[in-house]
Amino acid sequence: MADMLKVKAIAKGVDQTPRKVGIVAALVRNRTVADALVILEHVPRRAATPVKKVIESAQANAVNNHGLDSKSLVITTINVTTGPRMRRYKPASRGRALPFEKKSSHILVEVSGTEKPKKKPVAKKADEKKEEKK
Prior knowledge:
This protein is α+β, with helices and mostly antiparallel strands. The protein has a single domain, classed as CATH 3.90.470.10. Helices cover 34% and strands 30% of the residues. The strands form 2 sheets. A 3-stranded antiparallel β-sheet has the order 1-5-2. The protein has a two-stranded antiparallel sheet with strand order 3-4. Strand 3 and strand 4 form a beta hairpin. Helix 2 packs antiparallel against helix 3. The chain is elongated and about 95 Å long.
């Protein structure tokens, strides 16, 4: 495959723990985009939805912005990293407050594929040009 371009999409601040999102991301690593989307539709985990959205966004970026062929797209990298954590407190017995953190994650997807072949403009014949002028 000549001319492999990499296109990426990022989702920041997904309100799920990176550990749970990473399990879903591991299911689709190094697969074609079409296969990954089918797999994620049938995964019964809540983390499948944001991962699917990021992959669809990367696919749209590749096709619309960079002119890649949608059938040749392959997920080259998919990373899940920790995002900001919100510190909260939960009331406990005897007037105490127990701390906990609401974790979030960032999802990075890189997609690579080949460019679509450029269409050549159709040359108009001299007869058609005369008809257009009339």
